[in-house]
Amino acid sequence: MRPVSFVRRSSVPRSGHPVARRLAPTLALLLLVSAGSAQAQIRGRPPTGGPPPRGPSQGWWFSGGAAGLVLGAINDGASSARWEFGNDPLWQLRGTLEKALDPATTLGVSLGYGVVDVNVTRLAVPGQVAPDPRAVCIAGCEAQLETWQLMGQFRSGGGPGFHTFFEAQGGVNGFRNLRTRDSTAAAIGPGTLQMGVAGSMGFGFGYTLSPGMVIALVQDFGIGWHARDNLPDGTGRTYRTRATRASLRFKF
To answer: Average pLDDT of 92-106?
Structure first.
């Protein structure tokens, strides 16, 4: 009987095809690059090669609208008259330019202008010589007056959909070109611009129509100090203000 021989096979596998051996390093490198890119995206790293996205705290807001203004009586020394505006709203056009400090805060300026009706009565000044009877509006009259407003404005609040916000303003109120409300439109007093410090605080409601467009309604209350020129001693120069403002705001 012939002896049986056993052939011991090597435990090391044979090498693969030559093409596979050449491609193996390239495939390993591609896997490492893909893993690094995926890890960077998971960690939230910004993509390179372009400018960073514009954040919500950047940009400017512009608004335009109207205000229904209620003014208290004002003693004016330049025209030697007391201006009484009544309780009806006085319409004023208004615009703002605001810089966004963060998603809920803006800082800017506001400008208002209007021509309003006013009832003028003579302001009694002790020791004053009686006016010329031919002068305009001696016994009182109906008149018109230009109103100006320039304010610094702080605004806080907002958000998507329906929201609330707070506003604070400080600056100056101005009045000029007081004239009779008749066909002659005669000037009462010098007609120069009378300015005084003023401020207000308000609370508002808004609705976001789109990310860059908001409609807003504000109710504010304030106080003003009229110019003291030629005012008799002891005559008050403060007056109260109340305004209801509606505006449409745009971001750019």
So the answer is: 95
